[in-house]
């Protein structure tokens, strides 16, 4: 991706307002940035989906929301209920947080079943990315998490929620790519602040990015300038 132009970068970037303190004004501001920048998706916490969805109606920006966010530790039945509710609310894509505690405990079959149940509840109606939370896993655990997601039927894997304060690295992405194979989407999310990071993550196998809204707007602007 060199040079990086405005359209190609924006169409690989999700922006979000998924912190606990984000309210209606933040959701409305998120929508304005999403539309102005033509970002591929904007994500909000589930309760705000009915607010965001009409603001993005008719645009190319998908309305997204997480399941089991941010811990991944909610019961599988709660996750599947949340996923179905989001479908009814009009969400166009979801990010489901894997049960990291199960992975760290070596209970990989249970972690796989948890993800598979959410995917079954969605039934392919919208894309689902499985969040692995790389900041809480060593390399072996990350491989295990990626394998559990793949075995569950995931077509897209995501590195983190952004809540752990750990930046996604090319090494994280390479490990996931090795397990996931060449065809699955990998979304790098967490601590991405420069075009140099974007290029390095792309080279390592990332295909999509979750970037803090303010930084995403800045990076798209920088990419536009670099492509002139």
Care to describe what's here?
The protein is of the alpha/beta class. It has 10 helices and 8 strands. It has helices at residues 6-10, 24-37, 49-55, 76-89, 100-104, 108-122, 139-152, 170-180, 195-204, 213-227; strands spanning 13-17, 41-44, 62-67, 93-97, 128-131, 156-158, 185-189, 208-210. An 8-stranded parallel beta barrel has the order 1-2-3-4-5-6-7-8, surrounded by 7 helices. Strand 5 (128-131), helix 7 and strand 6 form a beta-alpha-beta unit. The longest helix has 15 residues, at 108-122. The chain is globular and about 50 Å long. The two termini are 14 Å apart. The mean pLDDT is 95.
Radius of gyration: 16 Å
The total of beta strands comes to 8
- As laid out across the biggest beta sheet, the strand order is 1-2-3-4-5-6-7-8
Mean pLDDT: 95
- Count of helical stretches: 10
Helix content: 40-55%
- Structural category: alpha/beta
Proportion of β residues? 15-25%
What's the order of the H and E elements?
HEHEHEHEHHEHEHEHEH
Parts with pLDDT < 50 across at least 5 consecutive residues: none
Shape: globular
Largest sheet: 8 strands, parallel, barrel
Distance between the termini: 14 Å
Question: What attributes characterize this protein structure?
Answer:
228 residues; 10 helices; alpha/beta; eight-stranded parallel beta barrel
Provide a compact summary of the structure:
With 228 residues, the protein is an alpha/beta fold. It has ten helices and eight strands.
